[in-house]
Amino acid sequence: MHYQQIIIIFMLVVIVGVALWQLMMIVTSLFGLYLMSTNRGAIRAILSNIDIRKGQIFLDLGCGNAQNLIVASKQFGLQGIGIEIFFVQYLVAKLNVWLSGESKNIRIYLGDFRNFSELIKKADIIYLYQRQVLLEKIESELFCQAKKGSEIVCLSSYFVDHRPAKSFRVRNVYTDASVRVYKV
Ligand SMILES: C[S@@+](CC[C@H](N)C(=O)[O-])C[C@H]1O[C@@H](n2cnc3c(N)ncnc32)[C@H](O)[C@@H]1O
């Protein structure tokens, strides 16, 4: 095959890949899902700024590609639990955890996190990067279920009936985003 044909095929593959990803974002957003990720630098900054102890349970409600859990486990010695409703993201999360070699320390569950109260009750740190409207819907139930002394950490969105114990900003993707830490 000619060298120019290889470049054209490569570019087509990249363009189709990006288009499919964008399409998936649009389709999932029609179902109320929001597929942005916390980048590694941001989750590192967040975990460095909150009270954590090795071995504690870090629960990511809507864990996406599981990168937060991998950073939490590898760099902070936390046990990770992720719950993801979107099957493609669930598979990506399982694959990423396996590739990271952290399978012993991280569990990923498929489903709506509102049906996993037993896991919420066990968690020491609950992380949410979700739409504002979803946070407002789950606020009272989540605070009832979370164990006393645990922390709920929200990126960008916030709870309306609780005051954060701490707030700070991190750089996520290309913008500054606020982080709010609530003590239960
Ligand atoms: C903005 S992404 C955040 C992903 C990851 N937590 C992060 O910070 O990189 C939100 C994720 O939550 C998932 N999600 C939304 N609602 C959910 C629900 N009720 N139960 C479980 N996962 C949910 C979405 O499919 C999406 O992967």
Per-chain topology:
Elements lengths: L2 H28 L9 H9 L8 E5 L5 H10 L2 E6 L2 H14 L5 E5 L6 H6 L2 E4 L3 H14 L5 E5 L10 E7 L2 E9 L1
Helix pairs in contact: 2-3
This protein binds S-adenosylmethionine.
The site of S-adenosylmethionine has 21 residues, from strand 2.
Can you walk me through this structure?
With 184 residues, the protein is α/β, with parallel strands linked by helices. The chain folds into 2 domains: 1-31; 40-183, Vaccinia Virus protein VP39 (Rossmann fold). The chain is 44% helix and 22% strand. It has a 7-stranded mixed beta sheet. Strand 1 (57-61), helix 3 (67-76) and strand 2 form a beta-alpha-beta unit. Helix 2 (40-48) packs across helix 3. The chain is globular. The mean pLDDT is 92. Bound molecules: S-adenosylmethionine.
